[in-house]
């Protein structure tokens, strides 16, 4: 007798699906379209367990929608620019492309073995000139619209790696790669003006509600950080020599506050120590002290600066700011806990109601004045600022008002006096996109002494990376390695012809991944980044699948790009990803796999030992897709046994194709139709593990039917086994395909179509209803499945058991949930 053998099945069907074009969408309008996308992999080496988990989940959705009759596009590509390739090249005296494309070949072979239903014809690499040409083109579109610009500003700088770091690359104040403390350095860098889209990035989240995980929406919202508040102007007195204002002139400094109601509680004024403003305001006798303090602040990260654990530090500037509401003079300080790039970089300090201000006031012995009576103890005594609701006190015209009334009133007063206005402030910063690195898309700008910034003409794109730099030449040296490629750098200005220089920075790889989902619709188009008609046909990504580590930046940037492209009139939709699924992690022994713990599991070894199908099935069966899978707790060996059992069913069926299942055993048919119905609803609710549980139940019933009953010749058994093959086609492609062909079909099982459920087979004739008294189960009744609420109530109250228990006690309430439950309250 034949036995189920994973290697044999993989050899038999590997490559066949691609030959048959099973994974390629028709794109001819004959069926409704669906677009499924897994976040594309970085080609760091071979596939690992994390990929295996993520892609197994995305594939369930893809294959299910294919079976349901959709024309599904499920593409794959490679996020193939980035630092690891550059580091490997430096170490091996090679070019980053060598390492990158070799890894891609390895990973690609593994993906094919893993049987993912992707259309390989759409494969893309972000490091191909055919791709980055359009990344550069998009940069220029942004540039023309004023959405890409250069500015000189302090950026995170790793003194060891000699490169700029994005905020997310700074972990606890240190470089995430080499752990060197990060400093700030003023540099001229490129930015995307994502802050122009802050409101829309927030507001459009309404349409994602319920379709994206709540925690991801919360993280996006928090990152954008909209604060409702006011700008209030303070006049800083007797300031000498402020340029155009002349000698002795006054100078207005604006603060951002979310609590204008507390204006009467302001007792000092603070500007960010690292802001130019601090230097402009400082009185000459304090200038030296400030300069020393600024040096000290430079070395700190924003996180350290805002830490509540650190002792507050600061320098008095010898100036006073006048409170526009009551004319009070507030001493002006410079401190590091106020950030230069948030709000206006200056605050009015209200120590009674803001903990940071209170800590500062305690350190420097500054006054604390309560202006909101919250009923709590005096902050000056307790050291705890109060932020609750209460009536205003010590606040002149605001006295007696509630917090929100006082906010409105204070805004009204400053607005009518012309000393302030209501405003909205965002935490979101513009996106710093330039990197002093080699392996990325060159910024397509030429710098000319006469003309300034000149975009490379469109017909000269792509600006290709030079291919003659190797090893040490790629190492970071405080400026981009491209600066050393002299032949490459020196060009004629496209505008005036004079000698000019290329921009030597490359783009953050997040730029590449902000539009790749659009490229897939027309991956070989060499006339445009994407074909707008094709984008219209496919629309949004219907289901996006990827890790929660991308919950903020990648998704935010992709959303931003989508909105800009919409505004350019190139696409209709404004959100890229309709539904988002964050798959869990694969752990081992309850912990993330890591080299240092030595608990890594090698995917290749698992596949060799158990076969692709058993590994995939184990991933999906372990838990709902969002939950982590602990590889120490699962049993790929058990999955193998189950697959072998399912596979044997197909070998045993003897009834011919097309036999009428209605002639077969009804109980077998009921199990089949119930399994399919429950699988459908579980798939719609992303409970993929339940699908497997239902399939297992069905396999058991079919085995029994074959071994006894009407046996292998029963057409109801054939119907059931065909359903098993279709259900398994979502997770165990090799086994399912083989079963399908054993059952006499020639076409791919993915083209079988989802079994049609006969509703009549779903209803049980009778059902067991539970009768409770005050929530405790007291009796069980066999009732018709379609019993009405009033019939069920009557039956319950007539039950001898229940009558005996209730006795003479009056029935106060009867809750009925037909056909399953009655709860009587006495
Ligand atoms: C007075 C005040 C009184 C404040 C009070 C708070 C409570 P969010 O909600 O995060 O927007 N602030 C403004 N700019 C700042 C900066 N550059 N660095 C550090 N802190 C800054 O916070 C806004 C509040 O944070 C502002 O409202 C300001 O303090 C402070 F009982 O003004 B508040
Ligand atoms: Zn020029």
Automatic annotation (TrEMBL):
GO MF terms held by the record: aminoacyl-tRNA deacylase activity; ATP binding; leucine-tRNA ligase activity
Q: Name one GO biological process term.
A: leucyl-tRNA aminoacylation
As recorded in UniProt, its EC number(s) are 6.1.1.4
Aminoacyl-tRNA synthetase class Ia domain span: 428-631
UniProt short sequence motif 'KMSKS' region, positions renumbered to this chain: 592-596
Short motif 'HIGH' region, span = 41-51
Q: Which reaction does it catalyse?
A: tRNA(Leu) + L-leucine + ATP = L-leucyl-tRNA(Leu) + AMP + diphosphate
Q: Where is the Methionyl/Valyl/Leucyl/Isoleucyl-tRNA synthetase anticodon-binding domain?
A: 670-788
* A single cellular component GO annotation: cytosol
> Which branch of life, at top level?
Bacteria
Enzyme class name: ligase
Q: Which InterPro entries match?
A: aa-tRNA-synth_I_CS (IPR001412), aa-tRNA-synth_Ia (IPR002300), Leu-tRNA-ligase (IPR002302), Leu_tRNA-synth_edit (IPR025709), M/V/L/I-tRNA-synth_anticd-bd (IPR013155), Methionyl/Leucyl_tRNA_Synth (IPR015413), Rossmann-like_a/b/a_fold (IPR014729), tRNAsynth_Ia_anticodon-bd (IPR009080)
The record's subcellular locations are:
Cytoplasm
Return any one Pfam family short name.
Anticodon_1
Q: Which UniProt keywords apply?
A: Aminoacyl-tRNA synthetase, ATP-binding, Cytoplasm, Ligase, Nucleotide-binding, Protein biosynthesis
Chief site of localization:
cytoplasm
Domain Leucyl-tRNA synthetase editing, first and last residues per copy: 221-413
Q: Which residues form the Methionyl/Leucyl tRNA synthetase domain?
A: 40-180
Binding residues for ATP: 595
Sorted alphabetically, which NCBIfam families does this protein's record hold? leuS_bact (TIGR00396)
Q: Which HAMAP family match?
A: Leu_tRNA_synth_B (MF_00049_B)
- Which family does the entry's similarity section mention? Belongs to the class-I aminoacyl-tRNA synthetase family.
**Can you name this protein?**
Leucine--tRNA ligase
| Organism of provenance | Kocuria soli
